[in-house]
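re: ur msg from earlier - yeah i can do the zinc ion complex, just paste it... oh wait u already did. ok heres what im feeding in:
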Amino acid sequence: MDTIPCRLCGNTLTETFVDLGMSPLCESFLRADQIDARESFYPLHVRICTECLLVQLPAYVPGENIFSDYAYFSSYSTSWVEHARRYAETMTAQLGLTGESLVTEVASNDGYLLQHFVAAGIPVLGVEPAANIAEVARGKGIRTESEFLGAETGSALAGQYGRADLVAGNNVYAHIPDLVGFSAGLAALVKPDGLVTLEFPHLLRLIERNQYDTIYHEHYHYLTLLTAQRALATAGLTVVDVEELSSHGGSLRVHARHSGSPSVNVKSVLEAEAEAGLHTVEGHKGFAEAVFQIKRELVDFLHTARAEGKTVVGYGAPGKGNTLLNHCGIRQDLVAYTVDRNPHKQGMFLPGTHIPILAPERIAVDKPDYVLVLPWNLRTEIGEQLSYVREWGGRLVFPIPHLDVV
Ligand SMILES: [Zn+2]
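and the outut:
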């Protein structure tokens, strides 16, 4: 690609935000019979638009290739299911949802969120592009259509099921290459007086906390409140409120409506972004250097551990772990294996690095000296789950925001 247009405003992209080199798709886990086959690697070169400031990864890989058979099942994270339950309770009370209402969720996954509305007798519609995951949700009694949301599918679904009082999108708004079409789809799905809520990682926190491993091909843009406002405005949606959440290392939950005026919270988050420099192109510089510092610290630590004859294994097989491991060139010579609670991932291998994924019980059997925790966003939950590692003097290693061995 010689010239790449910004997906929001069409301006030619000329500035680099960070370039992490080539990486395989972070959710393309390999079976044993696939590890000798050729693997596809794609650039992780993130740009910033000098016109609208959208930080974006050009769509090197179309969404259909990524999400048609996606391996992520939200229900395997207990803290995430709890987060969903609280959201359902709060929204039901705030909006006065009843058996006459409709809650539509886009990227509804295996029904981890909608199940709470179903339990309260509130009609739901899930829209989940991955057919295998939509099937799991239907098996749990959650009405789900397997579709990619765009302007046309949004109108078609609204025609078939009615428009919703609440349209939720959790960790999807950053994951769709067609930001403008998806926004139009949201506008089509929601009633004239309905509410759209979107959760996505906040670029302000990503930069502050060095979360560079959340950059991967499935994650097409890295939003501030300012750029999210601009994207929603293309569909006539206005941001009326915003909440700051701790999930995924620091997220925003944006509330948008067909009309309304911004709350005090909106103004204060915008001010914080401006103060951090994120309302200018120059304010985004410096992140690339921070990224290479993390790489140096982690690789030095693992080489030293290896030289001292210590054993290191991983914990978790999240997508973000694959960005980190591939960018740092960490393979089985430095991390013997990783473990994951998701049985669909056990027995598979990490893309690119080919580190095997085993069941968590293996850690207690092998008693490694160090456990490298890949899903650092669940630090508290995993720290508790792995507290038994101390029984044999083992320690936990967190690579981000800075190398921390505890
Ligand atoms: Zn732009």
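cool cool. The two ends are 44 Å apart (CA to CA). ping me if u need the other ligands too
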